[in-house]
Amino acid sequence: MKLFARIVFIIPLFGWLLVSCGGNAKPLNNEPSVESPKGTPLIEIAEDFFDFGSIVEGEIVVHTFKIANTGDGVLVIKDVIPGCGCTTSKLGTEVLKPGEETKLEVIFDSKGWRGSQYKSVTLRTNAPNRERSVTIKANVVVK
Question: Positive or negative CA dihedral for 61, 75, 45, 80?
């Protein structure tokens, strides 16, 4: 009898879970939803390398890269990954319709660094070439 009571309790529970999990599901990993899967997005970065020249150790420098969707599908920038803790970034928008542009600001904190430094930020997208990177260079000198 106890087994029957458990089954009678469990079946409505599963039914409730199935109903409550359908319909209004949100994208995983905070990925923006994209309504139209038609077309192919293409990511274009006009300039993917920037040299700050010589900077003084401890200085914080910033460069902005322009990113465009030159394809005919919606481009979704799923992730922005700095190469190390001294480099951070700010992305203008994650979803670009065909022809739209956004900006990626790369910030480098030179505190504790010396000499020639190359720092990269990788963008993961839904474009056929899934990952693209931008790189900054700085020659850090001690004053």
Answer: positive
Characterise 30 by phi-psi region: left (phi > 0), alpha (psi -120 to 50), beta (else).
left
Backbone angles phi, psi at 15, to 5 degrees: -60, -45
The answer for residues whose C-beta is within 8 angstroms of residue 93's C-beta and 6 or more apart is 100, 102
- The closest of 35, 117, 113 to 76, measured between CA atoms, is 35
Low-confidence ranges of the chain (pLDDT < 70): 1-37
Mean pLDDT of the chain: 83
- HEC string for 37-80: CCCCCCEEECCCEEEEEEEECCCEEEEEEEEEECCCCCEEEEEE
The pLDDT assigned to 38 comes to 82
Q: What domains appear along the chain, each with residue ranges and CATH number?
A: 43-141 (2.60.40.10)
Give the span between the Cα atoms of 63 and 52, in whole angstroms. Answer: 9
